[in-house]
Amino acid sequence: MSGNLEDQLFFALGIKKEKEKEVFLNPDYEKDLGDPFKILNMDKAVERILQAIKSKEKVVLFGDYDADGIGGVVVFYDFFKKIGFENFEVYIPDRNKEGYGLTLGVIDDFEKKKVNLIITIDCGISDYDEIEKADGKGIDTVILDHHLESGLLPQAVAVVDVKQEKDKYPFDSFCGAGVAFKTVAALLERGEFSVTEGWSKWLLDVVCVATVADMVPLTGENRTLVHYGLKVLKKTQRPGLLALFKKLKIQKENVTVDDIAFFVAPRINVASRMDTATTSFNLLVTENSNEADWIAERLNQKNIERKEMAGKIIEEIELEISKSPREQRLLFFGNEKWEPGVLGVVANRVREKYNKSVFLWGKSGVENIKGSSRGDGSVNLVDLMSKIDDSFFIDRGGHALAAGFTVNENKINELGGALRDAYEKMEKQEVDRVLWVDKEIALGEITWSFLETIEKFGPFGMGNPKPVFLLKDLEVSGVKMFGNGGIHLQLDFQSDNKKISAIGFFMSNGYGLDIKKGTRIDLVANIERNTFMNRNELRLKIVDYKIK
Known about the structure:
Number of strands: 17
Number of helices: 18
Largest sheet: 7 strands, mixed
Radius of gyration: 24 Å
CATH architecture of one domain: Alpha-Beta Complex
Helix content: 40-55%
Shape: globular
Distance between the termini: 21 Å
């Protein structure tokens, strides 16, 4: 694998034309963000929202309970506050008590409050019955969503969702907060507001966090939103984000996509699982630094509790797997004592370790049995659940590789068998187990200029992964376990009298135990800049290794 690094990275991305290369390396806010009015039904949505603002109607911002939905609600909250519109309230449902999306009961509550307009953010596309009921009570709905339509579209005044089959907008991978941002941009363009031109860019800090947290592709317009969102994050004055950065020892001037993905987003998401999602919403909108400090500490503690709880569940699952009489192609486990709010994280960890689709369920603290699933790519999880009789589920939905479900209690003992039977009958997709590398390099090639070339291709994430490098026949000069209880692995190497470390997060269990000083390995890794605790050092991030 010889050749110019930049050319090889472009080749891996499938970018060949010089103009495309220039656009990729230098995102332009004005040129690279499309006209929001070219999104299907955007004009109808803007017209209805402007009418509500002008007439001072009662509006509800109804958002999903994750970092994406919360971020999208914050975008609208900031917009309404900026233009002086006060007749609105925010409603984020309780994840465990109410579940995802609108409910029939909440529509009754909105009628009592004399709500005129509901704006759903990061949800709504599948809420046909609920929106039909709202319409019957004289409550209009504007849907701002990014999920796939399923069957009939709700009877909303406007459905803004670039995933709709009829939508011809050239980019269809926005997260919910991205759709909210495009809508606010359209409102600012058409409405007559006394807002400084360019003010909307200050919303990009939460749009950036939401986009990274929701794991949508960081390509096209998302790349531009996150590129500029990182610039805004480095200047953000939101007390909540500043408090969270301080708590997590993140220097805001050096904040990265990894900081968001691995530290910030989990704290924002933990609220809906271990507390209430409004806690995270309040963190992002508070103007009081003392309140921000209190919320940041609460979210951090809840995240610690989540990790401890998840760790215990993983131990129980691994014990069950060790006792399993035969190899299972689909893993299914549950316990009434398990907290449903942490099962998504656990399912992800189990899937990563065993390379299999995983279904987990629990009931602690909630009325009905709820579960989470994560897929290995061999089948679409939503399609899989649709193959099972409706009597099993109270609710189900999600994405191809990540889904949730609520189960009828009298059916839980049969669900595992039904899922496995349906799985065996479905046509399987080939799951790629090959590890691709972008370039083979020597340890001595890892320099600051080498890293700077790599960083030009960021921000990295879904659709634009970090470059992966192969380093052959390295001699390990040091091995260390570190972190809470020694959960992380560090391998040290010497190059020209200089130490270079390679970090493997959550790799101490099952990794590193077979490596000692002097062991020779082939290493597959990313190259990154470590700024933790005011450091500024080159390091490797372990993807995999093989002992020679």
